[in-house]
Amino acid sequence: MTPQTSLQKDKIRILLLEGVHQSAVDLLASRGYTNVEYLKTSLPEDQLIEKISNVHFIGIRSRTQLTRKVLESARKLVAIGCFCIGTNQVDLKAATELGIAVFNAPYSNTRSVAELIIAETILTLRGIPAKNTACHRGGWMKSAAGAFEARGKTLGIIGYGAIGSQVSVLAEALGMRVIFYDVVTKLPLGNAVQISSLDELLGEADVVSLHVPELPSTKMMMGPKQIARMKPGAILLNASRGTVVDIEALAEALKSGHLAGAAIDVFPVEPRSNDDEFVSPLRGIDNALLTPHIGGSTMEAQENIGIEVAEKLAYYSDNGTTTSSVNFPEVALPGHVGAHRLLHIHRNVPGVLSAINQVFSENNINISAQFLQTNETLGYVVIDVDAEYSDLALEKLKNIPGTLRCRVLF
Ligand SMILES: NC(=O)c1ccc[n+]([C@@H]2O[C@H](COP(=O)([O-])OP(=O)(O)OC[C@H]3O[C@@H](n4cnc5c(N)ncnc54)[C@H](O)[C@@H]3O)[C@@H](O)[C@H]2O)c1
Ligand SMILES: O=C(O)CC[C@@H](O)C(=O)O
Questions:
Q1: Which of 241, 336, 344, 405 is catalytic?
Q2: What is the mean pLDDT of residues 136-156?
Q3: Can you give the pTM of this predicted structure?
Q4: SS3 at position 149
Q5: C-alpha 211 – ligand 1 centre gap (Å)
Q6: What pLDDT shows up at residue 5?
Q7: ipTM of the complex
Q8: 6: pLDDT strictly greater than 70
Q9: In terms of CATH, what superfamily is 6-104+298-328?
Q10: End-to-end distance of the chain based on CA atoms, in angstroms?
Q11: 293 is annotated as an active-site residue
């Protein structure tokens, strides 16, 4: 039997955008959530605001921009599922301040991206993008000039996290020498070596591959100066985020021949759907291998992501557990058989906790279990009580100053 929540499950509205995998819909259905609107595209802000004002959960990929303005109109929203790794498309500060939990799938497409990077390393070192284009145009570029083996070349990885370190292992298996730059000291895998400055890495690597998140500190981290610092004839790979590379400067470096090639999967501006035109200064540059943000788009990854994120949303809805949330204090909760569970999300300011406890002491409500976790913005308190008291407690808790969201699970 599926547990009852504060709303009947068929009243809990879920909006899934950007064609998330069917596995998400199936998983939600298996947990009793069938009130799902499924769209293949992202939505422009005005349409998003209209739709989000009425839903309890939303699932997106990388294109949907959940700005503060959008989130402020999401009065009923309980949680956001990012069916991907990156969460830069969500204003996380706003989501946190509004008490909306955000989940993602931090590892489900790691391998897919790493495999693509290895393929691109080999293809760009051999000059395949230009040769392929020539063949399609009736040309025949049979030549060894500018074509190299990966073996023995130096791969410079920027951002040695889940993807960067996976690329490192695969590249070493090809016989490449791996160096990496990361703002955090990382345990190097295999024979990889951490380099202390970006500048030094750029001066040494034959192939540079970017695997950093989109952050203020990574915006345009590959600008004209950094691109000029790369070795003549080097190759730049970017499957991280489009804002990390100055795309105009890259186009110039490819046209001038300073860089021998590039493989770019992510762009500062990406079409909203497959029906929209892709516009980029890299179009028409034959030694640039361009892909439509499909680093993580494999059947395996998408199916796993669908299950993982939908499971996190359903679990948070049913039980209150926030394990691996991107922005919420993490609480792994047991079941609450025989009790009603109150979930209280509040601003982490002095006085809220004592006000919560006062509700129970003043009204003589026995607490059978209580869980508390905070981060610097939020406090998350979970209280299990006898069924007969949950309505009264919910009403009182909702009125405590500092309360952001409050719900009950029956
Ligand atoms: N193209 C795609 O389809 C695709 C798929 C998955 C992920 N991504 C992108 O790849 C990014 C990386 O994914 P991940 O799972 O490896 O993330 P991760 O968090 O595991 O690793 C990121 C690494 O970058 C480092 N870093 C942060 N700022 C840095 C800086 N200024 N200089 C150097 N290093 C810095 C971090 O310390 C961390 O080690 C994601 O954030 C996402 O934007 C793209
Ligand atoms: O599927 C997507 O749209 C995004 C994929 C990738 O960039 C990620 O962050 O996981």
A1: 241
A2: 98
A3: 0.93
A4: coil
A5: 4
A6: 54
A7: 0.99
A8: no
A9: NAD(P)-binding Rossmann-like Domain (3.40.50.720)
A10: 13
A11: yes
Q: What is the DSSP string of 174-198?
A: TT-EEEEE-SS--PPPTT-EE-S-H
Three-state secondary structure readout of 270-336: CCCCCCCCCCCCCCCCCCEEECCCCCCCCHHHHHHHHHHHHHHHHHHHHHCCCCCCCCCCCCCCCCC
Fold of 332-409: Alpha-Beta Plaits (3.30.70)
233: closest CA among 207, 200, 272? 207
Mutate to test the pocket of ligand 2, among 62, 267, 299 (most ligand atoms within 8 A of CB): 62
| The amino acid at 28 | L
User: Is 110-290 CATH 3.55.30.10?
Assistant: no
Closest CA to 222 of 308, 129, 158, 134: 158
Strand order in the sheet with 193-194: 193-194, 177-181, 154-158, 207-210, 234-238, 259-264, 288-290
Distance, CA of 109 to CA of 85 (rounded, Å): 8
- C-alpha of residue 161 to centroid of ligand 1, in Å: 6
Q: How far apart are CA 330 and CA 374, in angstroms?
A: 8
Domain assignments of the chain as residue spans, ordered by start: 6-104+298-328, 110-290, 332-409
List b or e across 188-215, with b for residues whose CB sees 16 or more CB atoms inside 10 angstroms: beeebebbeebeebbebbbbbbbbbebe
What's the token pair of residue 286? 């034959």
